[in-house]
Amino acid sequence: MIYSFNPLEDSRWAKFLEDHPRSSVFHSHPWLAALHRTYGYQPVAFSTSPPGACLTNAIVFCEIRSWLTGRRLVSLPFSDHCAPLIDPGTALETFLPHLRSELTTRKLRYFELRPTEPLSSDLSPSSTHSYCLHSLDLTPSLDTLFRNLHQDSTRRKIRRAEREGLTSEAGTSPALLDAFYRLLLLTRRRHAIPPQPKRWFENLIHSFGPAIEIRVAFHHSRPVAAILTLRHKDTLTYKYGCSDARFHNLGGVHLLFWKSITDAKQNGLRTFDLGRSDWEDTGLITFKNRWGALQSELVYIRIGDRPASSAPSTTTELGWKRRLAKGILARLPGPVLRIAGELFYRHVG
Question: At residue 313, what are phi and psi to the nearest 5 degrees?
C-alpha cells in the first residue's frame, strides 16, 4: 500500500527529515510552506508507512495547476534537487504503479523527480534533463580551504575586495532585503529573465527564520553584490546571487562567498551546496569549480509528459521561442518586467 499525506500538516515530517541522511533544505517544512504561500502549490508526499506509524520512506511533490503549462507533480518546484527519501529495503519500483496512476487520477501531464544520484530503477522516462551540481566539503581547515581556491580569479578577488574597503552585512532586515532585491532586479534584467516576486523572498524569510541569511557587500555604502543562503542540518545552501555589473571588478561576490564559508565553519557546518548550473552556463560552472567544489551531474526525470496545448512541438521551436522571449524581455521597462515575474513563475515551477 502507498499512502499519501500533506507534509505541512503531518507532525512526523520534521523528525523524519532530521533522521534521514539524504534530506535537504528543499524537503523542509519552511521551503514547502514558502512555495505554498507564494504560488499556491499543494504539497503531497507518498510513503509505504501507514498513518500513525513512524515514517521510514517518502517521496514529496508539489502539485502545480496551470492553465498555461498544464497540471503536474514536481519534486520539487524551484528546487535544485530533491532526492526520493527511500530506505534501502524499499525499491523505487514500489512507488511507480501508484505514481503512474496519479497521472490519470489527477489528470496530470507528468510527474518529475530531481534525484541527487542516479536511480537504479528502470523508470522508462519520457524525458530527462541534465544539470551540473557543485558541493564544497567544509571539513578541511580554513587555511586549507583558502589554499584550495583558484589563486588568480578567487583568492586575488577576495583580497581585492578587502583592499578596496568593501564591507558586508548579514541578516534578514527589511533594509537588507530591499538592497538584495534591487540588485536582483539589475541582474535579472541583465540576463533578460523576469525577477521572482518579492513576496517569494519575504515568505522565505518568514518560513526559515534564523536559517536564512542575506549577505550584502557595500562599496562606500552602495550595495554592489548580494547572496541568499539557506541552512538545513549541517549544510549551507547557496540559492540566489546578484550584483551590480559596474562593480564586478571589486570582488564583492567573492567576498560574500568567503564570508559565508568562514561563518559556516565557525558554526560547525560540513557542506556548502553551491547549487545547480545549466551546462551552457560555462562561466558559472567555472566560477564554482574555482572554489574547489566537487562537480557532479543532476538528471531530472519526467514520466508521462503529455504535451500541454501551448507547449512547443520541437526542440528547434523551443529554442527559437526562448530567444524571442529573451529579446522581448530585455526591452521591457523595469516595472513591466517585475509584473511579468509576478505572472510568470507560478506557471513554470
Answer: -85, -20
Q: How much of the chain is in helix, strand and coil states, percent to nearest 5? A: 40, 25, 30
Identify the CA nearest to 34 among candidates 239, 171, 256.
239
Which portions of the chain are predicted below pLDDT 50?
309-321, 324
DSSP-assigned beta bridge partners for residue 69: none
Q: Are strands 70-75 and 235-243 parallel, antiparallel or unpaired?
A: unpaired
For residue 10, the surrounding DSSP H or E stretch is: none
Nearest Cα to Cα of residue 58 among 71, 46, 75: 46
Instruction: Give the model's pLDDT for residue 349.
Output: 84
Cell 527564520, residue located: 209
Instruction: Take residue 130 and report the three cell numbers written for it.
Output: 541534465
Contact 127, 302 (CB under 8 A): yes
CB atoms within 10 A of CB 278: 12
* Cell (9 digits) for 157: 578577488
Domains of the chain: 3-130+299-338 (3.40.630.30), 139-269 (3.40.630.30)
Task: Provide the grid cell at 99.
Answer: 505514481
pLDDT of residue 342: 83
